[in-house]
Design brief:
Layout: E1 7-12, H1 27-41, E2 46-51, E3 59-62, E4 68-71, E5 82-92, E6 95-107, E7 113-120, H2 128-131, H3 142-162, E8 168-174, H4 180-192, H5 200-209, E9 210-213, E10 224-226, H6 227-234, H7 243-246, E11 251-253, H8 254-260, E12 264-267, H9 270-279, E13 292-293, H10 300-303, H11 306-315, H12 334-356, E14 365-370, H13 386-395, E15 399-404, H14 412-428, E16 432-437, H15 442-451, E17 454-457, H16 469-475, E18 480-483, H17 488-491, E19 498-501, H18 511-536, H19 538-553, H20 558-570
Parallel strand pairs: 1-2, 1-8, 2-7, 8-9, 9-12, 12-13, 14-15, 14-17, 15-16, 17-18, 18-19
Antiparallel strand pairs: 3-4, 5-6, 6-7, 10-11
Bound molecules: pyridoxal-5'-phosphate.
Length: 572
């Protein structure tokens, strides 16, 4: 096969490639997919590597009490991908595990292709247990996880070589999950140079090729494995003698491995860059990692609702090729923005009513809150004082709220948040109607981020690294009402692109105090600004809607983001 000499290999544990392929859990996978889609648009020579996950993440069911259960979400690889001929192997606990690969092709808007390589170990040659290693995304314990990371990192590099990708100029680790690829690159180099083991020089050479993006300050997002476990599974302990690269206090920390073996490291928003620099500096040293930031974006053509695609085609020709031209949205007449939104709202409300057997209408101010149900996202903040919320709705203007999002299968605290919201429904009465939508996924995200009136986000700062659903909303003319964290610090201009929550709340408060303060601020903003603007100052609201497109969609897109990666990390 003929491949361009300078190619970027983008490794990610999850990539949302197609609405019919359930191999993503949330923002990380969506971002990876949008990155690949924009890379294809920009004709970046890139190949993406991930795992196949035959049974997906999971389908979320909520019982009548609101408790989440999970079902496998199997999909047919053959109807989306084609199998590639090579086989490679990795060693797991001394067993040889065979890997094959499937190719899914991402096509850019001018026809350039970025192949996504999906690794699969479900082969008759492998043991029953090993065959399950590429069945589920985040579907097992830490041992299952480490085995998957070996397949992704080590197996991924071997598969690329077998497919003829010999000239990879950059290996991009999208989150630390892929960091074992750097170990394989070290081994490769030592092997080429006929050495028994790698040395400092190899470390420098590998570093020049690697790029690392860290995605969360939440500790659970950073994989750590006891060294003993790692030696047993990898079948070697020689690597840990290189302390400055591999070791931190008896464990292999994938984040530090990626940091130590990358020449360019970034967080996913300006604030997240700062937070990561502080968080990842080892306590007992003066050593600071150089951590830059590249703010996330979304792939505009993927997330624009049909009525907005039509509007953009008419008023901003070429918007897909040049995302920064979205600033010309300021030329679109306000009534046209209103009509496009109305169409998107009708679609979303009808679908939500159908799926949830609900009775939402299209006149009422509709608030959307949908994302993974991790506790730091504080989905329940809006409902923390139900009496107050009822009072606001009956005094100032009615509300309906659409919630959605899956909790990680082993996150009982996240599941309890969902349950509490579901159980709040009866308590809130007719002025605040709420729905918790089951199985929030790509398709529902498209409908909701275009079809509500206000997009709500209430994370506990500084834990929201970026957030991207608010960007999808902005593209479809939906202002955010959000705590100032992640991308919103950059995207919020008060009463111009939306509204901030808790801007005067103390940053060093305890989580309980902070939640209290943010909730007060949220209620005040709703009562004094958001609800009155929506019901009584229609043109002001429409102007804000148009601003979100012009000011935020023109910047918070993956076209701009990938161009930053090109300039700072890929071809610098
Ligand atoms: C965009 C998206 C997310 C990410 O939402 P955040 O705002 O980053 O929390 C999660 N899930 C789905 C299905 C999405 O489309």
């Amino acid at each position: 096969m003929n491949h361009p000499r300078e190619i970027v290999a983008y490794f990610s544990m999850e990539i949302a490639l197609d609405p019919g392929i359930p191999t993503y859990s949330g923002g990380l996978g969506m971002l990876a997919g949008d990155t690949v889609r924009s890379a294809a648009d920009l004709k970046v020579p890139m190949v993406a590597v991930t795992l196949l996950y035959r049974h997906g993440y999971f389908r979320q069911k909520l019982d009548s009490s609101g408790w989440q259960t999970e079902e496998a979400m199997s999909w047919d690889a053959q109807s989306f991908c084609h199998e590639l001929p090579p086989r490679v192997e990795v060693s797991i606990e001394g067993r040889t595990v065979q890997l094959r690969a499937w190719r899914y092709t991402v096509k850019g808007n001018s026809g350039h292709e970025v192949p996504a390589i999906l690794l699969d170990v479900d082969l008759p040659e492998n043991s029953e247990w090993d065959r399950r290693l590429t069945h589920y995304l985040y579907g097992g314990d830490s041992h299952y996880r480490l085995c998957q990371e070996i397949i992704l990192g080590i197996g991924g590099v071997r598969m690329l070589r077998a497919l003829g990708y010999h000239e990879v100029c950059r290996f991009h680790m999208n989150e630390g999950h892929a960091a074992l690829l750097a170990l394989e690159l070290l081994d490769e180099r030592a092997h080429w140079l006929h050495r028994e083991s790698f040395n400092e020089e190899d470390v420098l050479a590998v570093k020049r090729r690697c790029v690392f993006t860290t995605h969360t300050p939440v500790p659970a997002g950073h994989d750590r494995f006891p060294l003993e476990h790692v030696s047993q599974v990898l079948g070697r302990s020689d690597v840990f003698t290189m302390h400055q690269v591999f070791c931190c206090e008896g464990e292999l920390n994938m984040t530090y491995l990626a940091l130590n073996l990358s020449h360019y490291v970034n967080g996913v928003a300006k604030k997240h860059g700062e937070v990561s620099r502080q968080m990842l500096t080892p306590r007992d040293t003066e050593h600071h990692y150089q951590i830059d930031s590249i703010t996330n974006g979304i792939h505009l053509a993927t997330w624009a609702a049909p009525s907005f695609v039509d509007l953009f085609n008419r008023y901003i020709p070429g918007w897909r090729e040049d995302n920064s031209s979205m600033r010309y949205a300021l030329r679109i007449p306000l009534e046209e923005v209103g009509r496009a939104h109305e169409a998107a709202k009708v679609r979303a409300v009808e679908e939500v009513n159908r799926r949830a057997n609900a009775d939402l209408d299209t006149e009422t101010l509709t608030v959307g809150f949908a994302r993974r149900a991790a506790t730091y996202k504080r989905a329940d903040l809006l409902l923390s004082d139900p009496q107050r919320l009822k009072g606001i709705a009956s005094g100032t203007g009615r509300l309906q709220v659409i919630f959605g999002g899956k909790a990680h299968p082993r996150d009982d605290a996240g599941k309890r948040v969902i349950q509490q919201i579901v159980q709040m429904r009866a308590l809130l009465g007719p002025d605040v109607r709420i729905v918790y939508l089951e199985n929030y996924d790509w398709e529902m995200a498209c409908l909701l981020t275009a079809g509500v009136d206000v997009w709500l986000n209430t994370p506990q700062p500084p834990l929201e690294a970026s957030g991207t659903s608010g960007m999808k909303a902005a593209l479809n003319g939906i202002p955010s009402l959000s705590v100032l964290d992640g991308w919103w610090i950059e995207g919020c201009i008060e009463e111009v692109t939306g509204w901030a929550i808790g801007e005067t709340c103390p940053v060093d408060a305890t989580p309980e105090h902070r939640a209290n303060c943010d909730a007060q601020s949220l209620y005040q903003k709703l009562e004094r600004v958001v609800i009155p603007t929506f019901y009584q100052r229609r043109d002001d609201f429409l102007r804000i809607m148009r601003n979100t497109i012009a000011l935020n969609a023109s910047h918070f897109n993956t076209q701009r983001m990938v161009q930053e990666y090109i300039a700072k990390a890929y071809f610098e």
